[in-house]
Design a protein that fits this description.
Helix content: over 70%
Oligomer: single chain
Number of domains: 2
Number of strands: 0
Distance between the termini: 103 Å
Largest sheet: none
Structural class: mainly alpha
Number of helices: 10
Length: 282
């Protein structure tokens, strides 16, 4: 497995780890409440769809050697590990992607992310969004479920409240009433502002970069047309001289002082020769 975009592969690593943790919380008898499990059950289909899309993208990129990807490069593990009930097999996906990171070099990954910030920022925002939505919903449910006067008591309510809070819309239909829930809400609000700011900067840099590249391409095409003579600009003929006016000397044709001195010496010499010749004939 090669890293075509380390930002995208980092996003897949985050999704895979979240899916494995959710699967463990749902299967293992660790005493997770019904409300928390309902939120985890809601997140699992979203994570599964992302992993299946990742498998489809990798399969599409592997053509025309798709069977090589499936049989030799672990494509079957990617497929089975992306299915809704492939919790254990998703460890293979995690091992394969992290091995690709080690093969590419962690320092090279950081260098790539610094040089290609625009390409890696989108997947960083998506990773943060998934983490904030799930962790924030679990924390709020932990404090709010069963509290007096609480209105966030189920997984769907917590997830919807998280989406509204992170997007800074704030409809007000669901809100925390406990101190712990309010602290979690404040952290989610700040996280949402940061996520929106990062996404806005990414979108601006992407559109401005595309516009500047288009302008550079137009300038190069115009230069090529001018050099080939297809759309060359013909030089304007010089304006006719008026009587008594001296021709204008362009700045590029300026003569150096040493050359002028030599010209004056030659003219003086020719003048002396002409004078002596006239005297002899007279």
């Amino acid at each position: 497995m090669e890293l075509s975009n380390p930002g995208y592969d980092f996003f897949i690593v985050v999704v895979t780890i979240m899916s494995i943790i959710n699967w463990a919380l749902l299967i293992l008898p660790i005493g997770a409440g019904r409300e928390i499990k309902s939120l985890l059950w809601l997140m699992q289909p979203l994570l599964t769809v992302i992993l299946l899309m990742d498998f489809g993208i990798r399969l599409h990129r592997s053509r025309p050697e798709r069977w090589v990807y499936m049989n030799r490069n672990g494509g079957w593990f990617d497929l089975v590990g992306s299915l809704p009930y492939g919790g254990v097999l998703r460890f293979f996906r995690l091992v394969r992607v992290t091995a690709a990171f080690r093969h590419f070099g962690w320092r090279n990954v950081l260098t790539w992310l610094v040089r290609h910030r625009a390409r890696g920022t989108l997947f960083l925002v998506l990773s943060l969004l998934l983490i904030v939505l799930e962790v924030g919903g679990l924390v709020v449910l932990h404090f709010e479920a069963g509290a007096p006067g609480a209105n966030i008591e189920t997984g769907p309510q917590a997830l919807w409240w998280g989406v509204v809070t992170v997007s800074t819309v704030g409809y007000g239909e669901y809100y925390p009433v406990t101190a712990g829930g309010q602290i979690a809400a404040a952290l989610m609000i700040f996280s949402g502002v940061a996520i929106i700011g990062i996404y806005t900067a990414w979108a601006a840099s992407t559109f401005l970069g595309a516009e500047s590249r288009a302008e550079e391409v137009d300038a190069q095409e115009s230069a090529q047309e001018s050099s080939q003579g297809g759309a060359a600009v013909r030089p304007r003929p010089p304006a006719p001289l008026r009587r008594g006016s001296a021709p204008a000397v362009p700045a590029a044709a300026a003569v150096e002082p040493a050359v002028l001195a030599k010209i004056h010496d030659r003219l003086d010499h020719l003048e002396k020769l002409l004078t002596e010749s006239l005297r002899r004939h007279s």
